[in-house]
Design brief:
The chain has 252 residues and is α/β, with parallel strands linked by helices. Helices cover 44% and strands 14% of the residues. The longest helix is centred in the middle third of the chain and has 29 residues, at 108-136. The chain is globular and about 55 Å long. The structure holds NADP nicotinamide-adenine-dinucleotide phosphate.
Length: 252
Amino acid sequence: MSIGNETISLVASGKTVLVVGATSSLARALCHTLAREGYGLVVTGRDEEEINLLAGDIVLRHNVPVMTLTEDFLSEYFTAESFIARSGEFDHIIITTGTMGSGDPLSLNDIAFTSHINYTLPAQIATLAAQKFAATGDGSIVIISSVAGDRGRQSNYAYGSAKAALTAFASGLRNYFYKQGVHVMTVKPGFIDTPMTWGMQSPLIASREYVAGKIVQSMHKKKDVIYVPFFWRYIMLIIMHIPEGIFKKLKL
Ligand SMILES: NC(=O)c1ccc[n+]([C@@H]2O[C@H](COP(=O)([O-])OP(=O)(O)OC[C@H]3O[C@@H](n4cnc5c(N)ncnc54)[C@H](OP(=O)(O)O)[C@@H]3O)[C@@H](O)[C@H]2O)c1
């Protein structure tokens, strides 16, 4: 068993998951769900203290090997290639990194920043993981997108458009690597009880544990695209079919 930048060797083959952005609220729940099932983990995040605390907690509770990697995506030295190289050995990857940005719809900086964190980096990391998995003809890539990517809304369209790009990217990646045995799953959560939704009052908010459980279950079943909870598929179907002439007048 190990905590730190060491190679994992104590877990069955095919049972190590790299969780990118492991200190996100959703990712923490995913880590515990996976560890409960006996998966070893490589957990990455930008806050070293937080990532070590998370790793220690998982080892203590679930007795599985956990490797940590501290990485700041905004560092001038960051490259997706070195990130994947430093992540050690893993059989599956879950990419949870995301940000809503400042919330100012007129911020030019937000357009660049949210694209970078929600789309560019996850897409680059997923591409490298897919190539790695293609070499063995196995492995799942789980990409956390959002229902916000299904249609641009005035409340968060910089974030939503970056997630739309990520959703389209995941679709293409799945298509490109399908014949090489690589599973790519797009996850479109609705509202989850995380800091992103703090202050929001809605009966539609799902617990992190529920969403994490559904994601891991669907990964096992090698699903392509999932909405979590499932009813968001129908909510978004309605939203996507509202005529533009009406939609532009709504406050969504
Ligand atoms: N919460 C929701 O209702 C909801 C709904 C739909 C989709 N999602 C998606 O689900 C995923 C997880 O969401 P969450 O609510 O758990 O989010 P969260 O707690 O805010 O976590 C976001 C993750 O992204 C990382 N991150 C943000 N900015 C970063 C930066 N500049 N450099 C490196 N890492 C950065 C965070 O790192 P730190 O931990 O270091 O801050 C964290 O790991 C996200 O992709 C989000 O878009 C969430």
